[in-house]
Design a protein that fits this description.
single chain; about 250 residues; two-stranded antiparallel ribbon; 13 helices; potassium channel regulator activity; membrane; potassium
Length: about 250
């Protein structure tokens, strides 16, 4: 996709109409499944072009390598039971994760570096920080392979409710059970920063705040100034474009 078309698809819509996927902040309704899949796979370190051994070889090597890294993840069989990935998919994901993170965990700085490759035209550091917080479920400052695949399993294979709950947790920055305008503004500013300053058409400085107001007009049903998980899920399910954006992540890997 040409840069101009990509940037225009990011900025054509200023309302919460599905043009940004609620899970990742990525553009959705103006791009095909194929394009979303290609960009998502580009983000995953395990999908960088490599000449990989056969799965049978991987299985033997993985057993040995699991004993040499600093953090040893759960067995593939156990992870298969706990996620919606097959053992083969887990082996592919693990090999890529290990190649990028030999210690078995990724810290926030490395996570930001990986995510910056996805949006080279802007500053993705703040949004990557929020995303890292969502993956770091143990709040220990690192994301293990288990953290990674648990989150990925929800985003790619979870039910609509699972995915929306994950998105809500991403937006609920202080984890108090509701989304405030201040939290949503921080998220929207990070998304606009990630999109880059030199977009077409150019964005106004007050665009993030306008987007937040639109979000609350649609989501804050009882007008109490905050959006609860029930309001969020109910509103998203009634929005055809948001539901379409959920489907774009089906069968990505």
């Amino acid at each position: 996709m040409k840069a101009k078309n990509r940037d225009q698809s990011l900025t054509d819509s200023r309302e919460l109409d599905g043009s940004y996927d609620p899970l990742t902040g990525n553009p959705s309704n103006s791009q095909s499944k194929k394009t979303i899949k290609q960009r998502f796979l580009k983000l995953l370190p395990c999908c960088k072009p490599t000449v990989a051994p056969s799965i049978s070889q991987n299985s033997v090597e993985d057993d040995f390598e699991l004993s040499t890294v600093c953090h040893r993840p759960e067995s593939m069989d156990k992870l298969q039971e706990q996620t919606k990935f097959t053992k083969k998919e887990l082996q592919v994901l693990y090999r890529g994760f290990k190649n990028e993170c030999p210690s078995g965990v990724v810290n926030e700085e490395n996570f930001k570096n990986i995510y910056s490759q996805f949006f080279p035209q802007g500053d993705s550091s703040m949004y990557a920080h929020f995303l890292f917080e969502a993956f770091d479920t143990n709040k220990n400052g690192s994301v293990s392979f288990e953290d990674f695949v648990f989150g990925l399993s929800i985003i790619l294979r979870g039910t609509i409710n699972d995915r929306l709950n994950w998105a809500f947790n991403l937006y609920d920055l202080n984890k108090d059970g509701c989304i405030t305008k201040e939290e949503m503004l921080d998220i929207m500013k990070s998304i606009y920063d990630m999109m880059g300053k030199y977009t077409y058409p150019s964005m106004q400085e007050d665009a993030p705040r306008e987007h937040v107001e639109t979000f609350f007009q649609k989501m804050d049903r009882n007008k109490d100034g905050v959006v609860t998980i029930d309001e969020f899920i109910e509103s998203c399910k009634k929005d055809e474009n948001i539901m379409l954006s959920m489907q774009l992540f089906d069968n990505v890997i």
